[in-house]
Amino acid sequence: MSTNQLKARWKAGKAAVNGWLAIPSGFSAEVMAQCGFDSVTVDMQHGVQDYLSMVQCFQAMDKHPVTKLVRVPWNEPGIIGKALDGGAWGVIAPMINTREQAEAMVSACRYPPHGTRSNGPIRHGTYGVASNYQSIANDEVLVIPMIETKQAIDNLDSILDVKGIDGIYVGPSDLAFSLGLTPKLDHEDPTILKIYERLIAECGKRGIHAGIHCGSPEYAARMIQMGFRLTTIANDAGLMAKAALEAVATVWKVAGDKR
């Protein structure tokens, strides 16, 4: 049985819904982990997260059946190894634009002989999976490069051919930016949608799973129907703000707007 339940889900041919943590709070992570997400990602790139808050979020989620992922700030072996040692079962790395960058990411996520990750799984090795972590890590840890630029699309085949990649993750805003379009999450532009179709097709040929960041649950559902196997809905801060705005608006609407 797989220790990484997201990987097991993908292997069974199922899609997954992913939560996203921008708020550096174990309590926020604990709440999100109980909302039905299959996986939850700590965002160390654009979220207000650092390494210690990542660990706190992972600790808060440990008792819940979600796969803990992290988006690291950059494709750098030090922070990738440290995030994995801290409890992540998968790494999402931004701005992977070339085969060489994808190879470097895989290497940073894998122990020898398949990579160059340094041994020292301080949380993984002593909590939960005990002494067998090193024997399963190379098989269980998910390597998910972000495809989010025109350069990455131009180099797509060579990136996806890198051995050891489990999935890709689309950053819609940066992808649109690099194509001269308005940066946003839920696109209807035919150029973007055609790229999505190509990504799904090329990933499918290689047994790789495509993921995407979405702004709304409706768009996330549509992307699953298109063929994406991991869909993220906004982030904890965005979901909280949306619910709060709707609640206040409802109060004034029902009250007859007597402000």
Strand order of the largest sheet: 1-2-3-4-5-6-7-8
Order of helical and strand elements: HEHEHEHEHHEHHEHHEHEH
Q: Give the tally of structural domains.
A: 1
Rg over alpha carbons: 19 Å
CATH topology: TIM Barrel
Low-confidence stretches: none
- Give the termini distance in whole angstroms: 58 Å
SS element count, helices: 12
CATH-derived architecture: Alpha-Beta Barrel
Which structural class do the helices and strands define?
alpha/beta
User: Which overall shape is indicated by the principal axes computed on the Cα atoms?
Assistant: globular
At the first level of CATH, the class is Alpha Beta
Task: Tell me what portion of residues adopts beta-strand conformation.
Answer: 15-25%
- CATH homologous superfamily identity: Phosphoenolpyruvate-binding domains
Give the overall average pLDDT. Answer: 95
The percent range for helix content is 40-55%
Task: Report the biggest beta sheet as strand number plus sense, adding barrel if it closes.
Answer: 8 strands, parallel, barrel
What is the β-strand count? 8
